[in-house]
Amino acid sequence: MPVYSKKVMDHFTNPRNVGEIENPDGVGEVGNPVCGDMMTFYIKVKDNRLEDVKFKTFGCGAAIAVSSMVSEMAKGKTLEEAMKITPRSVADELEGLPKQKFHCSNLGAQALNKAIENYLSKKKKGGKK
Ligand code: FES
Question: According to the model, what pLDDT value does residue 1 have?
Fold first, then answer.
């Protein structure tokens, strides 16, 4: 049994920002084919900042804690700052993840990045905003 930090347990039992954003500015979905876990991030952008971040995660406890932490870290950041959130920085904020659970933090950083990319590509196409 891997040992989880208090922070991981806290975010797992009481995840922040769970849910969906209506009419999101960007959506990013990633899955891990090995464990079958899935994560979707929804973002609202205002003046180049992440005004709101929500997620839905169907996955292991670490994946849920990671999503919750990523959403907290990303909220209020500029897009550039949020893109710099890495699996390592998420794991550090969670006071560490067991080695075999490190891929769960990859998912979180990737899903957020995808949501931002989705927003940027929509913007480029001259879609909304
Ligand atoms: Fe795959 Fe955690 S076991 S995301």
Answer: 65
Q: How many domains does the chain have?
A: 1
Indicate the SS3 state at residue 7: helix
Task: For residue 124, name the pLDDT band (cuts at 50, 70, 90).
Answer: confident
The two tokens of residue 124 are 């480029």
Answer whether 107 contacts ligand 1 (Cβ < 6 A).
yes
Distance between CA atoms of residues 87 and 49, nearest Å: 21
- Residue 104 CB less than 6 A away from ligand 1: yes
- Any atom of ligand 1 within 6 Å of the Cβ of 35: yes
Q: Which domain holds residue 41?
A: 6-121
Q: Is residue 91 part of a domain?
A: yes
- Alpha-carbon distance of 108 to 63, in angstroms, equals 7
The minimum-distance atom of ligand 1 relative to the CA of 62 is 2
> What phi and psi values does residue 49 have, to the nearest 5 degrees?
-120, 150
**18, 56 Cβ separation under 8 angstroms:** yes
Asked whether residue 88 is assigned to any structural domain, the reply reads yes
Whether the pTM exceeds 0.90: the reply is: yes
